[in-house]
Structures are given as structure tokens and as C-alpha cells.
Amino acid sequence: MTAALELSQVTAGYHIGEPVLKNITLRLERGEMVGILGPNGAGKTTLFRLATGLMQPARGEVRIFGEACRKLMPKRRAQLIGVAPQSLDGLIPFSVQELVAMSRSVWRSHPWQPSHAGNDQRAVDRALALTDMSDLRHRPLDALSGGERQRAIVAMAITRESPLLLLDEATSHLDMNHRLEIMQIVERLNREKGITVLMISHDINLSADFCHRILLLDHGALVADGTPSAVLRSELLEAVYHCDIAVSRDPQRGVITVNPARRLPSLPPETGVRCHVIGGGGSAGELLRRLTLSDYRVSCGVLNSGDTDELTATALDIATTTEKPFSSVSAGSLAAARRMAADCRICIIAGTPFGPGNLANLVIAEDIQQRGGHVLIMQGIERRDYTPAKQATKRVQSLLDKGAQAWKHTAQLMQQLAFITVSQ
Amino acid sequence: MTLQRSTWFFAILTGLIPVVFVFCLLTGSAGIPDLNTVTGHAILRMRLYRTLAALIVGSGLAGSGSVLQALLRNPLAEPYVLGISSGGALGAAIAILLGLGMVSIFAIPVAAFVGATLTLTLVYLLAGEQGIPSVHQLILSGVIVGAVVSSVLMFLISIAPTRGIHNIMWWMLGDLTVSSRPLLWAAAVLTGIGLLAIWYMAPSINAMTLGRDMAHHLGVRTGRTLLMGLAMATLMAAAAVSLAGIIGFVGLVVPHTVRRIIGPDHRRLIPGAALSGGLFLALCDTVARTIMAPRELPVGVMTALLGGPFFLAVLRRNRGQGFF
């Protein structure tokens, strides 16, 4: 049997040479209920646009029930796919009922056939009743609240009874009760009528609860595909969402709950843990942002003024020692940075490349280690060491030998830091 | 509710057409014409053509406005405001000056269509750097392009032979006097084609008001609908301009009012607006002919006096939402 939706080696994007989705292969069997998860910019919307035929892939092919999406007649495509987009801008005030009937009209042989013909009217009434919109059927769209509008959109999508239903954040504006109701309607359509469902949601828990299968997208690639319990693992989510995530399972109901964990409780100003960051060239931007958010008292340097990291540090009010643009770290600025880091017990070395110009910065880390402080170094120094005779690698190795820790990504570093600060 | 209301609306409208028609024939600075005299016959014939022209032009402009508002998703869109009428006038003026009117009765409307199409394209391109321009950008761009096009038209008038200047001036203000009967028929045919085409497209136009993406999800061929709809709206505006010059705001006042009465469904709105537009312009013209009798006001002055405040009302309302 042909798949409901099939993407084979699809690459797609909005600008030439900047693919948003890279070589995605994916198969949705008939009757599946699948959720797409991923951080902002992961390519979820692009995948949605491909599946609905709003855009065509640069390479590869999208098939809907075995038919190439590219060749599908617009009307046939609309019959096969029911779509609930994120929002609907009702500039011209059609009433809810008119809109739902308009959506149902894709099954009519001719658009001019009257909209109140038996079967169609029943399907419209049913969709309105299911989405709790019957009382609001004569309201124009612009007189509805955000949640009511979203229910109208869902009513438009389900009234068609298309074999494939695509939902893009279809429940994001709904209150708890209506969110659950809408999801139950969708689940019922899936169970009773065998309608294949593909939903994009930022609500991980909702997807975990209702979907049989989860696709996890990151940077335009499919990083995980499987049952909710297989995909929703904290290490995988942490790597994708770049934050600490607690996954808990309710053994009785079998429900998976995913929660981002707060790194540190909010502290009064000027009481946070001091740490010094050695960065440069944009390598420490994310780190500086995270540390500031987690109430660390951060200093940074030596940076060349005008460096991306220096701009980030200034924007975040982080004390920074700077050197003239494109110059080597001078004795004077190094001394200033060492004074600045004198009260630090933690030094973080970001993934910045080292050359003869900034090699001197390692002295600050060595200082702190000598005073019994902690040094955390982003791994892979040998790949970013441009000093003659690999001096940076040697010095970092010696730091590591004396107890410095290596880190892989920011989320992991934040955990290591939390551990250090707690043990202090 | 809307269905019943629209049934009433169409019943009343259909009943009004012969009444208004007779009223327009019998009213004028010369009073009720005496059919026993040659002059009386001439006056009646003149009024007949004039009323026919008003019905054609009014329905075309109202139909054009309805479609432009829906497809450009802009409550202020209208042939005059978007500069389409001025563009059409320029095209028609060039055709007249080149003597193309002698070649075919369709030469002037076609030239107007070319001018109007080029203007709309220019307005659209100037308004939006990418994607769909905002309501105000589009109107601003339309007004500016319209002004430039009008001044080119003025330039042509100033260098043209003096003989026709009065006519052209009147034409720029909007004048329903029928100078050539074949042109009346040509405009009628083009307006008829345009109205039938957009009426046929009404379900697709309905979907397009929800935005291009949603229309796509509803199985509409969005590119084709947009292109055909805009072309037909421009064609009707061009036919109106060829026949009667620049008459503003009919395409704004009528669709908004009709939408308010029978709802936004274009399957009803397009015929409703076309019929009402014709009646509205016929009445406006009769008032313009008689209010300062024996002097005549250009009908464009009448519609602008009514339409200007209406435009402001829609503009103010637009800050909140958009369409009535």
C-alpha cells in the first residue's frame, strides 16, 4: 500500500545555496498519527509547506498517497489534504459557517454547486459541533477571539474529511480544555476513520500524549524518528534544544512529561558565582548569554574591540578587557584581565581558535587553576590551535592534567557549572 | 439571515432598474422631452445613451473595485485610488492622439487596458519590495503613480491641438456624454465579459480573501486566479475610462455598501455590486445634470464628493480591522 505522505531525499529552501531541509527521507504510513518537534528554525514549517504543496523541493520528491505532489491537481490535492494553518487572517468578514462550507466545497464537482446541499451541510454542521463552534457559526471571523478563530480553522480542516490531516500549531492559542478537546477530535478521526495526521507543535507534552510517532528535526535534518518514549530522551532533547531538560514518565498512565529545567534559582544581584570567560571570534556569545541568564557574574577577556563576543559582552553588561582591533594581546591588557579575574574561582575557555596573538589569554586560566579554582575547556583544542609548535594544545593538556574539565556543548557545560557551584 | 436579506436586496434592485432608468430618461435640464418634436427625440436619445453609459461604467467600476479589494486584500483598493484609471486614461489619450480610434472601435479600450495594466504593475512593484504590500503602501504608491501619470496626461493635453482640449478636460473629470455609439457598444461588451468572468471566478475569489496560502489549501489555482482577476478588473476599469473618463470612488463606495447589506460572498457580491454600481452612477449623473441646471457638473465631481468622505471612513475603520 502506498504511504500517505512520502518524502524521498528532499532538499528544500528559500534561497539558492541555503537549504532549510537537507536530504530528508520520510514515510508516513496510512493511519499514523505523527508529531513533528524541533526548535525554532529547525525546518518544521518548511516541511509543512512541502507537504501541502505550497513549495516545491529543490531536489527529491514529495508524494501524497503515491501521487507526486508536483503533478497533483490543486483540487485533488485539497481533497486529499486537510490543512489547519497557524492562523487565518480574515480580512473580509466571512462567517464561521461560510468558511467551513467553503472548505467543504472542495468535494463539489463544481464550485458553483449550492453549499447547502444535504451531505455537505451535514459535514459542516458536524465539524462545527465537534469544535464547539455551533453557537458562533454566524459570527464573522474578525469578531472571534484567538482561540475561537483557531477552532474555526480546525473546523475548516476536519469538515473535509480528507485522508491526510496536517496541523500546524493548531492548538497553540487554545485554553487547556479546548486544546484537549481538539486533540481528542483529531485522535478520534485518526482512530475511527483512519485519517493520517501530521502535526507540528511546540507543545512536546501534547505531542507525546497523542502521537504514536515523533519526528525530531534540527537544523534541517531528521535527528530522531520513533515512538515518543524512544525520541523524548533528555540527552537527545538537550542536544537539540540546548537546555537542560527533565523527562519524567508517569508509570500508571504511561504519559511522558518533558520540562525544561531552570539552571539556578534566581539570585539577588551581585551575589552570583564569579566566572571568567576566555573567548573571541563569536565563540563565546551563546555562553555569555547563558551565564548571564543563569545569574553568574561574568567577566570576559582579553578580546579585541569590535569582536563579536565583545559586542555581545557589552550588550549584556559584562565586564570585559579589550585590546585594539586585530592586535595581539599586550602585556598591559593581559595584566588588566588577570586583575579582573583575581576574584574568580571558575574559568571557562570557549571554542575560540588560538594563535600567537591570543595565546597569552591562557595565563588567566592557569592563574585560576593555581589558586585552586576550576577550569572548563571546550574540547577539541587541537583542531583550533594555530600556534607554532602547538603550544596552545600543550598548555591546555597540562591544564587538563591538573584537573581541568572538558565540555562539549553549552547545555552540558551549564550542568557541570551547576555541579561545581553546588559542591562549593 | 444573509440569504433572505440578499433575496430581498436583489428583488428590490431588479425592481429599481426600470424605475431608475425611466427616471433618468425623464429628468434633465430640459425637463420631460416632448416626443412630438425632433429636439425631444434627440434629447431622449441622448439621455438614453447617457443612462446606458452610466449603467455600464458604474457596474464595471463597482465590479472592478470588488475584485481589487478581494484579491489585493485591501479595503481601499479601487481603480481610481490605485491609479489604474489614470493609467487607462493615458493609454486612451495616446490612442486618440495617434488617431487609432479610426482603426477599430476596440482600439481605445485596448490602449486604455494596456495603460491601466502597466500602471497597476508599476504600482504593485513600487509598493512591495517583496511579497504582498501593506494596505497603506499600496494606496500611497497608487496615489503617487496616479499623480505622475495624470501629469503626463496633462502634458499631452497641453501639446495637443487646441480643438479637443475642452473635451479631454471634461473627460478627465468624468463625463458620461456618449461621443461615439460604437465605443458604447465596445465598452458594454468588454464590461460584460469582465463581469461574467469575475462572477464565474467568485468561489475562487472568496478563497483568495483568506490569503494566498489558505486559498492554496482550499484547492484554488492561486496564481491563475490572481492574474485573471486583476486582468479582468483592469479590463473593466479600462472600458469605463474609454467611455467616460476618470470617475473615482464608485469602486469603493458601492462594493463596501453592498457587502454590508448582503455579506462578503462574491457569488452574490459581484452581481449585487454591478447592479448597484450602475444604478448609483446613473442617479449620480442625473443629479449632476440637473442640480445646477442649465449648467452640468461632471459626474466625477459628484462621485468624488460622495466618495471622498467614504474613503476616509474606511481608512479610519481600517486602523481597527478592515472591511465593513
Structure description:
The complex is a heterodimer of chains A (424) and B (324). Helices cover 35% and strands 24% of the residues of chain A. With 424 residues, chain A is an alpha/beta fold. With 324 residues, chain B is an all-alpha fold. The mean pLDDT of chain B is 85.
The helix content of chain B, as a percent range, equals over 70%
Number of helices of chain A: 15
* Separation, N- and C-terminal Cα atoms of chain B: 17 Å
Structural class of chain B: mainly alpha
The whole-number mean of residue pLDDT values of chain B reads: 85
Produce the secondary structure layout:
The complex is a heterodimer of chains A (424) and B (324).
Chain A: E1 5-15, E2 18-28, E3 33-37, H1 44-51, E4 59-64, E5 67-68, H2 74-80, E6 81-84, H3 96-104, H4 118-130, H5 146-158, E7 164-168, H6 176-193, E8 196-200, H7 204-210, E9 213-218, E10 221-226, H8 228-231, H9 234-241, E11 245-250, E12 255-260, E13 274-278, H10 285-293, E14 297-304, H11 308-315, E15 319-323, H12 331-340, E16 346-349, H13 362-370, E17 374-378, H14 391-401, E18 405-407, H15 410-423
Parallel strand pairs in A: 3-8, 3-9, 6-7, 7-8, 13-14, 13-16, 14-15, 16-17, 17-18
Antiparallel strand pairs in A: 1-2, 1-4, 4-5, 9-10, 11-12
Helix pairs in contact in A: 3-4, 3-5, 4-5, 13-14
Chain B: H1 2-26, H2 38-71, H3 84-97, H4 107-127, H5 135-159, H6 165-173, H7 181-200, H8 202-208, H9 212-217, H10 222-244, H11 250-262, H12 266-290, H13 299-320
Helix pairs in contact in B: 1-2, 1-12, 2-7, 2-10, 2-11, 2-12, 3-4, 3-5, 3-10, 4-5, 4-10, 7-10, 7-12, 11-12, 12-13
